[in-house]
Amino acid sequence: xxxxxxxxxxxxxxxxxxxxxxxxxxxxxxxxxxxxxxxxxxxxxxxxxxxxxxxxxxxxxxxxxxxxxxxxxxxxxxxxxxxxxxxxxxxxxxxxxxxxxxxxxxxxxxxxxxxxxxxxxxxxxxxxxxxxxxxxxxxxxxxxxxxxxxxxxxxxxxxxxxxxxxxxxxxxxxxxxxxxxxxxxxxxxxxxxxxxxxxxxxxxxxxxxxxxxxxxxxxxxxxxxxxxxxxxxxxxxxxxxxxxxxxxxxxxxxxxxxxxxxxxxxxxxxxxxxxxxxxxxxxxxxxxxxxxxxxxxxxxxxx
Amino acid sequence: xxxxxxxxxxxxxxxxxxxxxxxxxxxxxxxxxxxxxxxxxxxxxxxxxxxxxxxxxxxxxxxxxxxxxxxxxxxxxxxxxxxxxxxxxxxxxxxxxxxxxxxxxxxxxxxxxxxxxxxxxxxxxxxxxxxxxxxxxxxxxxxxxxxxxxxxxxxxxxxxxxxxxxxxxxxxxxxxxxxxxxxxxxxxxxxxxxxxxxxxxxxxxxxxxxxxxxxxxxxxxxxxxxxxxxxxxxxxxxxxxxxxxxxxxxxxxxxxxxxxxxxx
Lengths: 303, 264
Description:
The structure holds 2 protein chains of 2 kinds.
Chain A: H1 2-27, H2 35-51, H3 56-79, H4 85-104, E1 108-110, H5 124-128, H6 133-156, H7 159-169, H8 171-176, H9 181-207, E2 209-211, H10 218-232, H11 238-260, H12 270-292, E3 295-296, E4 301-302
Antiparallel strand pairs in A: 1-2, 3-4
Helix pairs in contact in A: 1-6, 1-9, 1-10, 1-11, 2-3, 2-4, 2-9, 3-4, 3-9, 6-11, 7-9, 10-11, 10-12, 11-12
Chain B: E1 2-11, E2 19-29, E3 34-39, H1 45-53, E4 60-65, E5 68-69, H2 75-78, E6 82-85, H3 99-107, H4 123-132, H5 151-164, E7 169-173, H6 183-198, E8 201-206, H7 209-214, E9 218-223, E10 226-232, H8 233-238, H9 241-252
Parallel strand pairs in B: 3-8, 3-9, 6-7, 7-8
Antiparallel strand pairs in B: 1-2, 1-4, 4-5, 9-10
Helix pairs in contact in B: 3-5, 5-6
């Protein structure tokens, strides 16, 4: 039960990242590696501010904005300086490691109880209302996921959102309709990295600390959630896809939690395991196709 | 409506593959002119169209559309004045989005994209009405993904989208070249019908001499990055393919070879 609770709470928090990754990978069809930078920027900013006595909600909001800035940098590098998207993301990611140490002042910050109210996170007020820490995390994360999901869905249905989806689909057409593809790419990267910064902020507050190396491999976690959602649920609507992203993110956490529970695996195997899960999820459709389909036309039977 | 003055463009200057594709091209289109642009491969006709559309900036020269100097305007900024249909049917529409989403994007050409919903309910009536003139049944398929349509249907849809907000100039870049021989003339007819209905100033690039003669009120032939022939009015109406071939070799001072243009 403890495993499931932990998986659900982390799964909910990381589904915000999954939405961010979905925006760049699937809506914009542009792989964005700055995610690993923006998640530690979000975590570091939130940790520094909360431990410095800031209201955790304000701190989380600012952390989100810092994530947006990372997206802005990647977007400008790609659109204005014509740097290929993967390299632009890597540059932002690498720079983020230095920036986050500047923000935190050190390579890791613990969120110790602070001030008379002993506030350590956005979850504190729910704990004070009588909820257990785990329940507080799940409740608040769920509310955030719903709010972000609804706002994101509505945005994708607006004129600007529609232009953004078209940009990922066909940039020639978008330009011919008088839309700046550069502006759309930058906006999408900012929203995506803002969501990932928010993920980092919540994650740091969930685990009680932020460190400069916590972001390594998180892009693959985001990607894993998206791929699991796509492999398990063949939906076409944007709203259905957003819901499946949350489910995919929780399933990923469950798989990881169960696997790490095995005796021969240690927590340091997490990233290897993640890579294996993504690989399996990506190749599964291929394998299924190979073993299910080919129908012999002459006999009308499966070969 | 469209004025091109002394346009020059060299691609890859200073390299072994340097290519001077436009030589001092000047051209003036009056309102309602329907110009067909013909020439061999590498004659510069598509480049000229791209120069008007803003896919590249010219080395020297000036382009004005309806009195507005657009020479240095980015592609998406001058799109306000232009309707465009491309050679590749995939280029003009967004395949993963449905017909009404595509049309709503086109309906807002030149407008700021805000946080309003991508379509208003009453727009659908307008879209249905415009699509019904195609007689392809697309008016009943507003929520179908454009990727499901055939190449010809997509070009027809692109034509409707390009003219949904009346453009000052319509640019057709060999828009039927990638279609099968049965569909191509239909899409051409649809285009000409729309152009006449809204009296659109149009530039149409084509490889096909017969199409160039049959459509439009003015025919321009390019060769080696220059305009070598400009025929309009009665002379254009009486023109035959044989005459055109003769004029071509005369004007361009080079032997006409069959693969430079399809005789249709």
